[in-house]
Amino acid sequence: MDAxxxxxxxxxxxxxxxxxRPVKASRQFGPGEWAHCRCTDCGYLFTGIVPExxxxxxxxxxxxxxx
Length: 67
Known about the structure:
About 0% of the residues lie in helices and about 30% in strands. The protein is an all-beta fold. A hairpin with a 5-residue loop joins strand 3 (about 35-40) and strand 4 (about 45-50). The mean pLDDT is about 80.
C-alpha cells in the first residue's frame, strides 16, 4: 500500500505521524480504522486510530452520524 493518511499524535514525542497500513488487512484503510503509524519526527512505530481529515464536512473531530 503506497498511500498514507495523517495519523494520530505520537505517544512517544508528541509529533506528527503517518498511518502506513491497516492493522487488519481485511478492513478498509482510512479514518476511524486501526493502523500501524510511524512518527515523522522520531520514527517511533505504534498502532493508533486514523483521525478524520481536517476539512469542512460534517463530522470533523468526531464520527459522522452515517458511521
